[in-house]
Structure formats: C-alpha cells, structure tokens
Model the fold of this input.
Amino acid sequence: MPAAPSVIPEIIPVITLPEVVFFPHSLLPLHIFEPRYQAMLKDVLATNGLMAVSQLDPRATPEDPAEPPCPFTCVGAIKAYVYNPDGTANIVLHGLTRARVIDIARERPYRLIRVAPVPEQSSGTDKNLETLSRALLNLLTRARAATSEIPPEALEHIEHSQDDPAALADTIGAYIVNDVSLRRSLLECPNTSIRLQRLRRYLRSHVLELEFEKKLRGGLPEDGIGLN
Done:
C-alpha cells in the first residue's frame, strides 16, 4: 500500500454510516462487507490508500436511498487491513484531516465525494491552549479515578497527543465523547481553542456525574467532589 500523500485529492471515496463521526488523529476500525465497499477497498489499496468516512445526515430517513452525508467529513489513510476467507475485510483508518463535503461526484460502483480540506485554526495564544489542554488532562485524570470504563487504548492515544492541543482535542472527542451531536459539532469546528473549551464544559459535567455515582457507591469521601 502506498504512503498517504501530503496533499488530499479533491475527489475521494467515502463510506457513509449512521451515528459514526470520524476524527483526525484517531483510529477507526471498520468491517468491510458490502460489495460496493469491497470494490472501493480494492481500488483504494491499489492507489493512495485514502478514503473518507461521513456520518449519515441525521435528517435522512431509513427509506432515503440517497444516504446524504453530513456537511463535514474526515479523510483517513488505511493503516492496517486483513482480508477474511469470505471476502470481507477488516481495516483500521487513521484520521488525517477534517474536510467540507462540496458535492457528490459519483454514485456507482461506490460513492465519490468532492471535498475541501479544512485547515486547523486557533483564536488563542499558545499559553491559553496549554492551559486549556492541562485542564482537560486534569479532568480526564479525575474521570479515570471515578470509572474503569475508559479503554486503555483510548488513554494511550490521548497520552500520545497531549503535547499537541489540536490532536488532544480530536482524540478526546474521538475516544471519550459519546454524544453524537457533540461529536459532530467538534468535527465541524476547525478552531482548536473552541474545541478545547467545548470539551472542558463536557468533561466537567461528565466527571461530576461519575464522581457523584461513585460517591453513592461509597467510593469517594464527602468532600471528594469539586470543580477544577
């Protein structure tokens, strides 16, 4: 498989899935079983290894044959793949960049979309980004103390991103946030400092819930709940 190019092509294959929001800097495992996506995978592996994953527009109905994608997607590179005896395949995508969906370039034999990569932005200083990042990591430490439900591999990816505020925001969004609407709003926001602020608000509320639940189970002292 060729190395991923530094420039994202204007037209790229896409898989559209309900409830799936794919982030830059994250890993996404996929099981490829539909014939159209099997054909896509064969072509992607023979060319640049790039494909996008888009969330199905939540306004679409189950009967909607068009499978409209959300306005933003993430372009990723295939990091690993294995073919199964039945012709299906398991792949792992590494998210490269968020992108705006311009239009659908082709439908068959699989969908191609025209995209415009969205560069990272920031309205904060380096010190401000560092402060926000540190606050998120502190909240994540508290979450780990209150629950064992955070997978070790998620913590490993986040740890590797802790020195890059943009990557930190995307990995926490990918591995910690379960709310699909919030995940989509994070993907649609190219501004690092705004994403960090949204995540801080989310984690504050989430950590308080986890700590309250643990306190009810007798796992925290009376003064063990507070906001940073």
Q: What stands out?
A: The mean pLDDT is 89. Residues 11-117 form a domain with the Archaeosine Trna-guanine Transglycosylase; Chain: A, domain 4 fold (CATH 2.30.130.40). Residues 192-216 form the longest helix (25 residues).
